[in-house]
Design brief:
- By secondary structure, this protein is α+β, with helices and mostly antiparallel strands.
- The protein has two domains: about 200 residues, Bira Bifunctional Protein, Domain 2 (BirA Bifunctional Protein, domain 2, 2-Layer Sandwich), CATH 3.30.930.10; about 40 residues, SH3 type barrels (Roll), CATH 2.30.30.100.
- The chain has five helices and twelve strands.
- The strands form two sheets. Strands 1-2-3-7-6-5-4 form a seven-stranded mixed β-sheet, with helices on both faces.
- Helix 2 crosses helix 4 and helix 2 packs across helix 5.
- The N and C termini lie far apart (about 45 Å).
- The mean pLDDT is about 95.
- The structure holds biotinyl-5-AMP.
- The site of biotinyl-5-AMP has 29 residues, from helix 1, strand 3, strand 6 and strand 7.
Length: about 260
């Protein structure tokens, strides 16, 4: 996208995972701003070993390589800026305002999942040899653009869970227009990651877009579950959950699921 750092766009008809590809590129020293976009992924990744489904030629499957100089406890903001850029772009291109279900889902007004974000970092990789920034974070997003429509061909576990921009608007959407809009919206947000004031601004935008706030949630960590009301997103991007007995700080990387509470 001209005028942004995202000018090196690598397109694939089919690949296992755009995140896997960019992590390998990062290990080989690729600079910030490389983008990988695929028409189909044979092994699309979700968080924690889960999979991301999309039939060939239907949805946006894209990853970006970032090298932000982020304090370790603020790394979730790298993932958040991609989610926020996608919210901006969907609003601009399609006129639909998606909400962010903390930590990494974009939901339609019907509460169904339109997109998921996956940030992966290999902390063993040194900062770029080209001198353009810090340790790499690959942030991938899968957006259900033209699939599913009317729930057709959905795997059983996604029925009533997934929706698409086509389904929400009633018409097909041009994926390349949406991608350009995301990269344009992402540029100033990534710039913000470089300063304390910018990071506070991005965390504020995340808080404003986060539809989890004010709702009852059940939080599943690897070794613990608890329920409470989600009350805030901190300036690091963490979720505050008030259990009644305590205000718990929930860190994105520790979360297995955040589900509606009873
Ligand atoms: C995510 O994980 O939501 C992150 C998805 C990231 C996908 C992108 S595509 C480009 C880049 N390259 C990759 O390999 N990955 C990234 P998680 O929160 O773990 O959600 C995964 C769960 O969402 C699955 O277990 C399913 O239940 C559900 N799911 C799978 N495909 C879906 C879809 N198309 N729409 C809605 N839900 C889906």
């Amino acid at each position: 996208m001209p005028g942004t750092r995202f000018t090196n766009i690598r397109r694939f008809d089919s690949i296992d995972s755009t995140n896997r590809y960019l992590l390998d590129e990062a290990r080989a020293g690729a600079p910030e701003g490389v983008v990988a976009v695929a028409d189909h992924q044979s092994a699309g990744r979700g968080r924690l070993g889960r999979t991301w489904e999309a039939p060939p030629g239907s949805n946006l499957l894209v990853s970006v390589l970032l090298r932000p100089d982020l304090p370790g406890d603020q790394r979730h903001l790298a993932s958040a800026v991609v989610a926020l850029a996608a919210v901006d772009a969907v609003n601009a291109v399609v006129g639909t305002r998606l909400g962010i279900k903390w930590p990494n889902d974009l939901l339609g007004p019907n509460g169904r999942k339109v997109a998921g974000v996956l940030a992966e970092a290999d902390l063993a990789v040194p900062p770029s040899s080209t001198g353009t920034g810090g340790s790499p974070i690959v942030v991938g997003i899968g957006i259900n653009v033209n699939w599913p429509v009317k729930g057709a061909d959905l795997p059983e576990d996604l029925v009533g869970v997934a929706t698409s921009l086509h389904e929400l608007t009633g018409h097909p959407i041009d994926r390349s227009v949406l991608l350009d809009s995301i990269l344009e919206a992402l540029e100033p947000r990534v710039c913000d990651l470089a300063t304390a004031a910018g990071r506070i601004r991005q965390a504020g935008d995340l808080r404003a877009a986060c539809t989890t706030l004010g709702t009852r949630v059940r939080v599943e960590l690897a070794d613990e579950r608890f329920e409470g009301t989600a009350t805030d997103v901190t300036s690091e991007g963490h979720l505050i959950v008030d259990t009644g007995a305590a205000r718990r700080t929930v860190i994105a990387g520790d979360v297995v699921h955040v589900r509606p509470g009873g």
